[in-house]
Amino acid sequence: MGRKRSRGPYAGRRQGLTGNQLKILGIVAILIDNIGAVVIQGGILHGTDSALYHAVVLTPSGHYWLIAGQVCRYVGRLGFPILAYLTAEEFVRTRDRRQYALRMLLFALLSEVPFDLAVYHTPFYPHYQNMMFTLFAGVLVMAVMESTQNPCLKAGALAAGCALSWVLQFDYNVVGVLFIAAMYWFRHNDIAQLAVGVVLCALESVSYYCVSALAFVPVVLYNGRRGAFQLKYLFYVFYPVHLLALYGIGQYVLKA
Predict the structure, then answer these.
(1) Which of 25, 50, 119, 121 has a 20 to 30 A CA-CA distance from 96?
(2) CA atoms within 13 A on the CB side of 142
(3) CB 140 within 8 A of CB 101
């Protein structure tokens, strides 16, 4: 992932976080978020049954599980901005934009059943789609923005990407697509990228007291380098696998 300019206060030096380290941070945040949503809120607290949910929450242990679930969801707000930022970074670096987009779409499709099982306890839930579809929409927008100098076409691509995300209800919705496009558009201006990114993160996580904006703490420490290991496919594999694993744990808890 090396490039000519480094980022953040470590510009020009090797210190700071590599792309691999940043990716692992994002993955861990997503994992913690979904532990809170799937295992604690949907499993231990019986979040899919309102009567059971309130009965469990009123118990002493249920109160602590409620807090634990909320903490996990707050920590999880850091995951999407980090991974969406890296999506824009990897788009700029990849040699084959078409292959990159197709790979994103493939894993979005592969992740949909695990996502629906984990979140909605059904293999098919058409009213809300997983996060990788948001990343895919962002890649499509970036591809059009890169291919033309016409500002109207660029704006049209962004509007179409946002509309697609809203109509099909992709996770993180319109703000998610706007965030990816902004990271790409302002990639040569760290200050503008930071300012716009923080505002969009705050909008996305307003119900979580704008916690997502804290994702830029590790982002500004990014040193522009990939790191020692090739973790290109780590997130693609992790996303559907961890959802299936958490679904299994959640079902076990519900039956216990």
Answers:
(1) 25
(2) 31
(3) yes
pLDDT along the chain (256 residues), means of 10: 42 75 96 96 82 81 92 95 96 93 97 97 96 98 96 97 97 96 95 94 80 93 84 91 96 83
pTM exceeds 0.85, yes or no = yes
CA 62 – CA 109 distance, rounded (Å): 35
What is residue 253's predicted lDDT score, i.e. its pLDDT? 87
Tokens 């470590």, located at residue: 10
| Amino acid, res. 139 | V
Alpha-carbon distance of 94 to 89, in angstroms, equals 9
- Report which DSSP code applies to 214: G
The token pair at 156 is 């049209």
Q: What is the DSSP letter of 39?
A: I
Q: Give me the amino acid identity at 136.
A: F
| Residue 114: burial class (beta carbons within 10 Å; 0-12, 13-18, 19+) | buried
- Could you write out the DSSP letters of every residue in 180-197? HHHHHHTTT-HHHHHHHH
* Predicted local confidence at residue 1, as pLDDT: 38
Q: How many other CB atoms are there within 10 angstroms of residue 37's CB atom?
A: 20
Runs of H (alpha helix) within 58-187: 60-76, 79-93, 97-120, 131-147, 151-168, 173-185
Q: What is the per-residue pLDDT for 58? A: 81
Residues listed for the chain: 256
